[in-house]
Amino acid sequence: MTTGALMIDIAGTELTPEEAAQLQRAEVGGLILFSRNYESPAQLRTLMVSIRQLRPDLLVAVDQEGGRVQRFRSGFTRLPPMSVLGEEWQRDPKHAIAQAHELGWLLACELREYDIDLSFAPVLDLDYGHSAVIGDRAFARSAEAVEQLAGALMSGMHEAGMAATGKHFPGHGWVEVDSHLGLPVDKRSFAQIEAEDLKPFAGLIKRGLDAIMPAHIQYAQVCSQPAGFSEFWLQRQLREALGFDGVIFSDDLSMEGAAAQGSYADRADAALAAGCDMVLVCNAPAAAKEVLEHLAQIDSPVSHRIARMRARPKRAADPERLARARTLAASLQESLA
After folding, report:
1. Is residue 95 annotated as part of the catalytic site, yes or no?
2. Where residue 2 falls among pLDDT bands split at 50, 70, 90?
3. Residue 219 pairs with which residues in a beta bridge?
4. Cβ distance 170 to 198 under 8 Å?
5. pLDDT, tens digit, 9 for 90 and up, residues 109-157
6. Does the active-site annotation cover 252?
7. pLDDT higher than 90, residue 302
């Protein structure tokens, strides 16, 4: 089974006729939802029914990491930033791993209730204290802690029927510049990056990581292209050296970190040529339309891998376990006060 290589977004809480028509285009394989698309559980359910009526096969995603990056809040469990698990790791690694598994399970269960396929999680970046845009989204500074905690979160997501996406390969934590606003440049050597930042990715690939999202960052001593447009990073390292055969999602091509690649069509071409299976164009309707029409003209590539990211059919969750997991999330959130 193959699917289109473009993931787009929508403007509001229901589909417009133009958006419905776009979602039915063969080049569109995915939809990402944001906070502006959510006002209540009932509205989300109605929206998702309308989407599934149009495209039962469409991959529907959201950023529901927890902490600052949680698009659906009211009516959903407030998930803590993952750094709280890193703090617990310092005290009791085994307990922190168990907590991470339950949070991953809870995150996935709540999204699966609305027929959403995946959250772009977990974050595998290391918290060097340099990056405000990563910050407490990272589990920890330690590569070992990140690998173990993110692996447990992933196993919880898998238990609930949801695939996991590790980001931002090969690591966003060292740089200060926010790639939404500019192109960060990481001047470390490959050996330095490999010794720390790559370890969580390598470890989770061995444990069954389903997808990876590369960073819009230039690793200047390694390759002139940002990672998401780099055959060195996506082919030589990710596919060959690390043996990864899962899905590669581009980060949003409307981010400033991607601007040096040229037009939006050029950005999509560069990402796909480097090895991405699916490209995201978000928060820029004209840009999404440009890429859509471009892909239609060139007979855009399709990937057999993307269909793997569709969630398994949802099963009723144990109410007692849900209650315990929500209590856990609340207690971790309260610990930040």
Report:
1. no
2. low
3. 186
4. yes
5. 999 999 999 999 999 999 999 888 899 999 999 999 999 999 999 999 9
6. no
7. no
| Range scoring the smallest mean pLDDT among 35-39, 77-81, 142-146, 256-260 | 256-260
Closest to 150 in 3D by CA, of 168, 127, 171, 166: 166
Contact 290, 257 (CB under 8 A): no
What are the extents of the domains in the chain?
Answer: 6-334
Residue 183 to residue 5: CA distance in whole angstroms: 24
DSSP 3-state assignment of 51?
helix
> Phi/psi zone of residue 118: left (φ > 0), alpha (ψ -120 to 50 degrees), beta?
beta
Helical spans, DSSP H, in the chain? 17-23, 41-54, 83-91, 93-112, 143-159, 190-195, 198-206, 231, 264-274, 285-297, 319-334
Which entry of 115, 178, 180, 266 is annotated as an active-site residue?
180
In degrees, rounded to 5, the angle at the alpha carbon of residue 160 between the alpha carbons of residues 159 and 163 is 85
Picking from 251, 69, 289, the residue whose alpha carbon sits closest to that of residue 165 is 251
CATH fold of 6-334 reads: TIM Barrel (3.20.20)
**Which one is catalytic: 251, 252, 269, 277?**
251
**Interatomic CA distance for residues 59 and 217, integer angstroms:** 26
Residues shown for the chain:
337
Contacts of 140 (CB under 8 A, 6+ apart): 83, 85, 86, 89, 126, 127, 146, 149
Assign 1 a pLDDT band (cuts: 50, 70, 90). very low
- In sign, the C-alpha dihedral spanning 322, 323, 324, 328 is positive
